[in-house]
Sequence to fold (204 residues):
Amino acid sequence: MELFAPLREHATDPAVKRIENVLTLLVSADTLAREQREQKKLLEQSGAAVQRSKSFRESLLASARTWELLNAALLRYPRLPLAQGRFGRFEIIERPVTSSSGHWAPWERWAVGTLLNLAKKPGGLSRLRRCSECQQWFYAIRGHQQFCGESCRRRRTAQDPVFKEKRATYMRETYRAKIEPEKEERSKRQAARVLSEKSKKGGK
Fold:
């Protein structure tokens, strides 16, 4: 996804940092909203009063703070209506306008528009995630995906204590299965040489 390359390669550029802030806030707001829907459903099923749930109220406050920060970040991007026509079609679209200038200005305008369009679609933001290993943003192809790539998944797996123990056990067993027979064979050959030398000496 074109959105993520600048976030990885030019993370310190002001325009890129602004987009990462908008992305982070959008994903946080979307995640909070989904969690609230699930929590509300569970509370209602159990017969508990939603309004009395402390965790639910805290989640609503977190949403309010997130939206406040998001709206403040989006003040930079006023949206103007734009008439656009094609053959047999006429529509009014929203055009993001930014006050930024320089090399990243076109990308910043495009990135904000892309993120806001994703936010309008149900579940549109749910697959934009930070890698559990390197913390870089990526688009999750699978719903349960936690890592941006195979290398990060392997690094995380290698740090797992259970995996380390399994690896150590495997290496020990492999060592025994391969090295021990070789050592035994070397010992037999050495013993055979010693006996051969003794028999030669005895024959003289």
Observations:
- Residues 161-203 form the longest helix (43 residues).
- Residues 4-126 form one domain.
- Strands lie at 79-86, 89-96, 128-130, 137-139.
